Amino acid sequence: MDEFIPVNTPLVDGNEEKYLSECIRTGWISSEGPFVKRFEREFAHMMGCAHGVAVSNGTAALDVSVEALGIGPGDEVILPTFTIISCIGQIVRAGAKPVLVDSDPITWNMDVSQIENKITSRTKAIMVVHIFGLPVDMDPVLKIAQRHGLKIIEDAAQMHGQKYKGKPCGSFGDISTFSFYPNKHITTGEGGMIVTNDEQLAETCRGLRNLCFQANKRFVHERLGWNYRMTNLQAALGLAQLERLDEFVTRKRKMGARYTELLDGTEGIQLPVVETDYAHNIYWVFGIVLDGTLRFDAEEAMRRLHDQEIGCRPFFYPMHQQPVLRNMGLLAGESYPVAEKLYQRGFYVPSGMALTEDQIERVAETVIEHIR
Length: 372
Ligand SMILES: *Cc1c(COP(=O)(O)O)cnc(C)c1O
Fold this sequence. Notes:
There is one protein chain. With 372 residues, the protein is an alpha/beta fold. Helix content is 35%, strand content 15%. It contains 12 helices and 13 strands. A hairpin with a 2-residue loop joins strand 6 and strand 7. The protein is globular, with a radius of gyration of 21 Å. The model has no long low-confidence stretch (mean pLDDT 98).
């Protein structure tokens, strides 16, 4: 039997070890260490933003962003139903109302034409989530936000190094967030970052990630925050990874191109969009959607590939179908057919940074042979 191909393996063979050793040698291992500020500065700069606030993970970055914008009871936030639970958590906890839109069946991103109909006098923000390596079509979203005076939260967790019409993803939100989980384009093991051009907002985020300690009266709190700090060890990894971001993006595009070349024209499956008029896919993951001609679903497809020693993951389970939200009485009776179908028919194949050419070929051959 062939060796198992995991769905993700990161590449950490640059300056990671060197910078980590420096942390250990100097004793700077906590969030007070010098790599954190350097990573914030350099990362924000590369994303075209003035300020970076490093946090413990991408979910934390979203929690802090929602809180920093003052989103609370009575407010509404528009976001895609086809996303990770991290996006909706703090909206719900804050007592605000999540308002969902469906996906585009081709790009799998939020269908921006559905946004405007969902706006009410209570709408406060649009949370944009770029999906799987192709950005959301931002121009229409920016126009709508401007027309209605709405904030944009841009979840760019799958988009490090991607550009929309030549401008970095992560530079479009009033506040934007990234994750450095090991399957993202750059990783710190666990980690996240908030970027913004708004100094005041950045300062609020710095407070919120650090329990809202105050400079003068440390243990007197005017607001509830979290301990969502990033350690110097994580930032050391992040800096080493950031040095290679361009190389990583190129690598991912090559992987996507190779998968596309090998799988294009295979009956019964839909592949990721290679390119639109606003961006060239960077393939955070290489997704496959089974079309109507195949009489089995993604679960069966993933089982078949797993039997051939190939790791896969399902697509996101839509927010409006989440038991945890339904049980809270939220989103009752709502239906978003494209996202529902994406979950039932979609999965992704091994896409990690360390994936080899041979592995890509074996995955593609196995898909062609077993997914029919
Ligand atoms: C990975 C991811 C997150 C969550 O990041 P964590 O670091 O795992 O908490 C949030 N949003 C999107 C779109 C993601 O892909």
